[in-house]
Amino acid sequence: MRSLDLQTISPAEANTAAARPELDSVRQAIDVGRAGSGLRARSEPYWRWRLANPDGVCAGFARQADRVQAAVVGVRHRARLDGEDVDWVEVVDTFNDFDAGRGLARTGAYSALCAEFARAFGGRAPEGANVFYGVPTRRAHRFELARLRSEILRSENALVIAPSSVTWVAPGVEVEEVDAFPDEIGGAFERFAEGRGAVQVRDAARLNWRFTAHPDRAYRIALARVGGELVGYAVYRRGSYAGHEGGVLADWMVRPEERDVMQGLLLWAGDAARSDGHDLLVTNVANRAGEFGAFQGVGFRVHGTDEYLTFRSFQKPYIMSWLFAHWYYTLGDSERG
Amino acid sequence: MSEYDIRPYRAGDEQGILDTFNVVFGEGVENYAPRTLEEWRWAFERNPAGRRVWVAEADGAIVAQCAALPYRVHLDDARATITQGVDSMVHPDHRRGLRRPGLFVATAQPFFREFGGLGKDALHYGWPVEPAWRIGRTFLGYEIITTQNIHFRAPGPGSRDLPMGVERIERFDDAAERLYDRCRTQWGMSVVRDAAYLNWRFIDNPRYDYHVFCVRDGAELRGYAVFRTADSPRPNSGLVVDWLVPPDDPEAATLLREAFLAQARTDGAEAVLAVFPEWSPWFQRFQEWGWVVYGSDYLLIGIIQSPRYDTWWLRERWWYQLAELDAI
To answer: What is the pTM of this model?
Structure first.
């Protein structure tokens, strides 16, 4: 008999003795799955960091005897949706044990787990997370579309530029590199979020967890001010995205009409890339957001990637066409950042 | 469903198909120009790749259709066919709502049993908007290949005359396929652009008039571009419908670009739109030439009928143009 165990894990519970054995089972299974896709195992600090997410983590696994046959891990995020704060779940890791049986039995546990995971964590707001999303690997993609009832929201792009090829000017914009996000970022987010259909909440606690406390990636943060008022920020890291090696703009919060602010932060990011020995910046934002055109307007070029952003909605009217048109996101809203 | 006779097209159905087509696609459309019998014959009788039509008949009338336009393709250097789903319809008097698998699905299922599967049409594709995509996904297995990006820019100021060295093509000849063979060396899949296809698609098309520009080197084509103005997908748009130029011939490309921009100015187009696969060098080149990329509402979808291929493969290797969309 297969026993199907599901567990939610909040930040407070994350490091309790009760949660450890179950989490260790999930971790081991996920690492096996990642190895099958040619990916590195997640580190112990990485798991601790993930579990410290202010919005919590959802995990589920299907186990027969002592063997984990399937696992799903999701990270919760607070989102501003049509002016209301709701929970979303980013599906970050999935595992299916392909050695456990033949034919349909190979994915039976995974299918059952996905259905149970959706029942437990998904649903209409405020009780459930009304959107699941993720950027699956090619291997996971087909299973998630079939078993998690995911849909493709967008075939993703990369925005790329060689900073030396353009001249940016930012009169009146003060850019300051900081070690952590200040509390006043919350007010800037409120102004940024005005008029947007969907955007994940950006406040000091969440941003500092996402970027400052990250155990594997060294992010640099810059704030932009005009007349002393905080009007935007950028998060930079050295690395690559979609095969473009250089400086990655992992997160970006500047209203698209604020061209001077945009250029001020890009000047900073270009300098950061140069100090890392690169003349390349790469990023991505939703291609229906004003920012997508704004980046092109200051010289970025659009490239293809092999990524699909997938989602599952549990609440109308937040179906594909709505989310496609109204959800502003950056690389930092997923592990790509 | 017992009152419906669901079967392949047979001679004599065309007027019934047209009658229902014009009811369905004319619904609520101001200044609708009904499809003519000549246009139907062009699409379904004279297509060099054949015909794919199933209908549902009731009381002597054609009340539903599942149809596709087949195209001959090179697929991994083998010849194959793919099909574009077109003219999906159910007469308003025979609809049951979107949530139940109604008459369209009943008509489509035998269509796909006949034309789908290994060794038959390798891909059935379309460019629906979300509601049509959702029906197809639920009942027919549609998958999204890409959410379609579109390149656009204003024609801007400039000449309205064709550049020196650009000619208009009256009719394609064998040079077209030789150009296509030079261009397709890096492509995984593409519609065969030979004279039979190109003359059918553009020159003999009874519904739309196209401007077909080319640059020649003696008897050989260095490149061609097909252009027309239209009010879809945006009002007063200039559309680069087909673009076939070797990426290593920037001179021919520049001449052809200037040719359709001149035509766009002459026609008063407010924007010039084009579509390129993201892996293609032209996706970048057109941005360097001032085109901006925009995420459209259109979804390039497919039912992939060979286990050797998936959406990822197609996204990375399929050369397609607006020409692969019959309504353009």
So the answer is: 0.94
